[in-house]
Specification:
Number of helices: 5
Strand order of the largest sheet: 10-9-12-17-14-15
Largest sheet: 6 strands, mixed
Helix content: under 10%
Length: 589
């Protein structure tokens, strides 16, 4: 071979190797985790119980990766009932097979079996996400954080913190929460679901809970340093106020995206949401309480909520006399301060920078107006008429099918769902008023089908049906979306769009629909698959406040759902924690 020809092949070889290196750098590294689900004993609030956790840890293990990496998690179920795991906020690009919600993308992993999830992040996802069980109410004890660091060779869009810590807020029930919920659904058709006995910070209820002040979570800090706190709200049914005594918080990210930094004395975080905050330890060395309590958006006359305060302790290192007790954050809002909570939410903006651009869709091809409501199913049973509590989106209370929707869609199995989820409510009235009509609610498995690359705008409208207005934190699987506006009362299609933020709206995967108000969002349907929309208050999800979006393939292999894995968990007996099927009954209110 001549020298010229040899030189040509050497150059070609170098180019091939470099291209391979580039591909590797784009795809990132692969990480492997083993999650073992099993029951272990935990003692809280003066009593011990056995509960299901991952790797005998509450909260569960932290998954720590870099932007662009892929994660493989082998879940081995050594418990005594079926479980699925959802990777909350992870876009799972073209890969709904590993998204996790039971009856939607898979059936549960049965005891003494395993299933391996492939967790694929979106190319721009960076910050804090989380994972949790997505079957029954098992996520109360099966959950943990996902930390997505900047890609190798890059850094944060703010000064790099000196250290960081993960803060997981969760619910604690003295009994087996799945049994408690099952009993509540069976005993009384109009009863609520169980209220937690306490909240926890990193697994501990804190100093104000019974038998707990010796185990309160402590964060040791150094004076003058700045810490990044990655906060996850894994609580089952409560939006939460959070503050640190004597210290301001600088919010820099939420739901795996960056935000324009803003300083606040507290945050309000909904179930399903994550928030990244910077805290500079600039106070006199001492002990300071981290504290959180429920933000109650329901009528103040409703007494049935967990009014406990959960605490952890910021403890400065150094030589000083410890206080008799840590100072409590005086700036922590009271339970029912709606305007304070909504004012906090209004401060979020995307970075909208060259490194973190905003791409709000402008030419909308699909518009939806979805009412979010509490309802009662009216049914007949052997000549007896009764009512059963329910919840709905556009008057549809979702029924879980016996076969998961993804399998039915991919395998073209008829009779599992229908594709007529409505774009609008059946009729219009003053949704937030007090003169309520008889609003017909249907129990059904209805889905919305979107073509690939459609530009979607959704207005979620809160309602006063059943005279029980409250916030609804709604979560979309497989996507993030831009929150372009929100307001009080009934959405006005002529005047309210004039205030839409199309320049730097926040990007979220979980958004709060305010009590008797509305929220507007937009996204491009460019992730083919089967994706769940649902309220992240688990009691509302149990009662049917969810639906499914099916995004069709785009016509090329690169815009189509990935092939299914060789093994998917088979469908077994349905869960006992589900609203009874009254779809063949007479009517619903």
């Amino acid at each position: 071979m001549g020298l010229k020809k040899m030189g040509f092949f050497l150059k070609l070889l170098v180019l091939v190797l470099m291209s391979g290196m580039l591909v590797c750098s784009v795809q990132g590294d692969a990480h492997y985790y083993d999650f073992v689900l099993k029951k272990s004993n935990f003692t809280r609030l003066c009593s011990t119980k056995s509960m299901l956790t991952v790797n005998e840890s509450f909260p569960g293990p932290v998954i720590r990766i870099h932007r662009g990496d892929t994660v493989y998690v082998n879940v081995q179920n050594e418990g005594d009932y079926g479980v699925t795991i959802h990777w909350h906020g992870v876009e799972q690009t073209r890969n709904p097979w590993s998204d996790g919600p039971e009856y939607i993308t898979q059936c549960s992993i049965q005891p003494r079996t395993n299933f391996t999830y492939e967790v694929i992040l979106g190319k721009d996802q960076e910050g804090t996400l989380w994972w949790h069980a997505h079957s029954n109410w098992t996520r109360a004890t099966v959950h943990g954080a996902i930390v997505v660091l900047p890609a190798e060779g890059t850094t944060y869009p703010y000064p790099k913190p000196d250290a960081e810590d993960v803060i997981v807020l969760a619910s604690w029930y003295k009994g087996d929460v799945n049994l408690l919920v099952q009993e509540a659904l069976l005993q009384n058709s109009t009863s609520s679901t169980p209220v937690s006995d306490a909240y926890t910070i990193n697994g501990q209820p804190g100093d104000f809970a019974a038998c707990s002040n010796g185990t309160t979570y402590r964060l040791l800090v150094d004076y003058g340093k700045t810490y990044l706190l990655r906060i996850v709200n894994a609580i089952m049914n409560s939006e939460t106020f959070f503050a640190i005594s004597g210290h301001n918080l600088t919010v820099v990210g939420t739901d795996g995206t960056y935000t324009k930094p803003f300083v606040t004395s507290f945050i309000m975080i909904a179930p399903g949401q994550t928030m990244d905050v910077l805290v500079t330890m600039d106070q006199a060395p001492s002990y300071y309480y981290i504290a959180a309590r429920q933000f109650v958006s329901e009528n103040p006359e409703v007494p049935d909520f967990d009014d406990s305060n959960v605490t952890a302790i910021i403890q400065y290192r150094g030589n000083y006399t410890p206080p008799a007790a840590p100072s409590f954050p005086a700036n922590l809002p009271a339970y029912h301060q709606l305007e304070v909570a909504y004012s906090f939410l209004s401060q979020f903006r995307s970075l909208a920078s060259p490194e973190h651009p905003v791409n709000v869709p402008l030419d909308i091809t699909t518009r939806m107006y979805i009412t979010v409501a509490m309802n009662s199913v009216v049914y007949e049973d052997e000549g007896t008429t009764g009512t059963y509590i329910a919840s709905s989106l556009n008057n549809i209370s979702f029924l879980n099918p016996e076969m998961d929707v993804l399998q039915a869609y991919y395998r073209h199995v008829a009779g599992v769902y229908t594709t007529d989820f409505p774009d609008h409510p059946s009729y219009y009235f003053n949704f937030t008023g007090y003169d309520m009509p008889s609003d017909v609610t249907m129990q059904a498995t209805k889905v919305k089908v979107l073509n690939y690359n459609e530009s979607v705008e959704i207005i979620f409208q809160g309602t006063n049906l059943q005279y029980t207005p409250e916030d609804h934190p709604l979560h979309l699987h497989g996507y993030t979306f831009y929150v372009i506006g929100s307001g009080y009362g009934v959405f006005d299609n002529e005047t309210d769009p004039q205030g839409f933020n199309l320049v730097d709206p926040p990007e979220r995967n979980t958004v709060t629909v305010p009590q008797n108000g509305w929220v507007a969002l937009r996204f491009v349907a460019n992730n083919p698959g089967v994706w769940l929309w649902h309220c992240h208050l688990d009691r509302h999800l149990t009662w049917g406040m969810d639906t499914v979006f099916i995004v069709k393939d785009g016509g090329t292999p690169e815009t189509s759902i990935l092939p299914p894995p060789a093994y998917m968990p088979p469908c077994q007996d349905p869960s006992p924690i589900v609203l009874e099927d009254f779809s063949d009954s007479v009517k619903a209110w």
